[in-house]
TrEMBL record:
Name the record gives this protein: Elongation factor Ts
Domain Translation elongation factor EFTs/EF1B dimerisation, residue spans: 73-277
Family: Belongs to the EF-Ts family.
SUPFAM superfamilies reported for this sequence: Elongation factor Ts (EF-Ts), dimerisation domain (SSF54713), UBA-like (SSF46934)
HAMAP family recorded: EF_Ts
Organism ancestry: Bacteria, Bacillati, Actinomycetota, Actinomycetes, Kitasatosporales
UniProt cross-references to InterPro entries, sorted A to Z: EF-Ts_dimer_sf, Transl_elong_EFTs/EF1B, Transl_elong_EFTs/EF1B_dimer, Transl_elong_Ts_CS, UBA-like_sf
Main location class: cytoplasm
Keyword Cytoplasm: yes
Intracellular or extracellular location(s): Cytoplasm
GO molecular function: translation elongation factor activity
Length: 278
């Protein structure tokens, strides 16, 4: 029998994130040599990565990182298969490290991020694959946002107290106003608008909504003369639901979000809302 101690098993678990029985087996095969056991587990883990590719990763965490002066910020989603892994320290440390890397390097898009080096000789894609191997689950990085052109604020929402944030919102104002930024971000988290204003909705989306509204109204047998007004009302209802600025403000529904911003004398330049798995 290989010569190793419980402390060796503990060390191997901390180094690799592998289960206790896998660590013991690896130490047996490596004659108690921890370094060789680490290598063996990594090799086995990388083989497991390919097997996990077809599995679904719908749990995970949203993390944020803001500059101390709120002039820049990052929002990033890292997904995994189970909430057990999502609330683990290693998974959350991985997500935080990826957010820090985005903040430091400002990649142009996801492809550039995955190809960039997070450690000497190691790309972000390799870093995620290593987490995949060590944690024994499919780990996916496929969304992030980075703002650096105004006053940036992040709001993080936990849907369960024992899980990391599952919803994150990043907003960018044209000038500093932490109270307004927080309130608007909370509103976005709750109401999930897709676009900032009517002008931001793609023309083809509006065209589809108008066509559906007209066909629905005709199917209901409404008078022909009333069609334009009814259709317009339904399209306006779509804008109210889907665009942020026209929505009744969550903290004071007598005002629109636009009115709240106007009264504060600030402009919301852009926002990103990420909900894990959606």
């Amino acid at each position: 029998m290989a010569n190793y101690t419980a402390a060796d098993v503990k060390k191997l678990r901390e180094l690799t994130g592998a289960g206790m029985m896998d660590c013991k087996k690896a130490l047996d095969e490596a004659d108690g040599n921890v370094d060789k056991a680490v290598e063996a587990l990594r090799i086995k883990g990388q083989k497991g990565v390919a097997k996990r590719e077809g599995r679904s990763a719908e749990n995970g965490a949203v993390v944020s990182l803001l500059a101390e002066d709120n002039t820049s910020g990052v929002l990033l989603e890292l997904k995994c298969e189970t909430d057990f892994v999502a609330k683990g320290d290693k998974f959350q440390a991985t997500a935080a490290a990826l957010a820090a890397h985005v903040a430091a390097t400002s990649p142009a898009d996801l492809e550039a991020l995955l190809a960039s080096e997070i450690e000497a000789g190691k790309t972000v894609q390799a870093y995620v694959d290593e987490a995949n191997a060590n944690l024994g689950e499919k780990i996916v990085l496929d969304r992030f946002a980075q703002y650096a052109d105004g006053f940036v604020f992040a709001y993080m929402h936990r849907t369960m107290p024992d899980l990391p944030p599952q919803i994150g919102v990043l907003v960018e104002l044209d000038k500093a106003d932490a109270d307004v930024a927080k309130g608007i971000a909370q509103h976005i988290a709750a109401f999930a608008p897709k676009w900032l204003s009517r002008e931001d909705v793609p023309a083809e989306v509006v065209e589809t909504e108008r066509r559906v509204a007209e066909e629905t109204t005709r199917a209901e047998g409404k008078p022909e003369a009333a069609l334009p007004k009814i259709v317009e009302g339904r399209v306006n209802g779509f804008f109210k639901d889907a665009t942020l600025l026209g929505q009744p403000y969550a903290l004071d529904n007598k005002k629109s979000v636009q009115k709240v911003l106007d009264e504060a004398g600030v402009t919301l330049k852009r926002f990103t809302r990420i909900k894990v798995g959606i």
